[in-house]
Amino acid sequence: MTDKSVPNTGEERGGGKFPKGLVLRLFAYLIAGHLFAAFIYLLFEMGGGQ
Predict the structure, then answer these.
(1) How many CA atoms lie within 13 A of 39 on its CB side?
(2) CB within 8 A of 13, min separation 6: which ones?
(3) Residue 35, burial from CB neighbour count under 10 angstroms (0-12, 13-18, 19+)
(4) Distance of CA 1 to the CA centre of its chain
(5) What is the mean pLDDT of residues 17-29?
(6) pTM of the prediction?
(7) How far is CA 36 from CA 1, 3, 27, 46, in A?
């Protein structure tokens, strides 16, 4: 029998830790986002130099 008075905060899953897949995806998206931004910056730097 479950206790309905306990709020569902997500802490009961994994002991309050982030899921491993979420951490890996977040890290990959951050790295990919920075690489993409660096590539766009490089394009503008090369295109803007006269």
Answers:
(1) 6
(2) 19
(3) exposed
(4) 36
(5) 90
(6) 0.56
(7) 50, 48, 14, 15
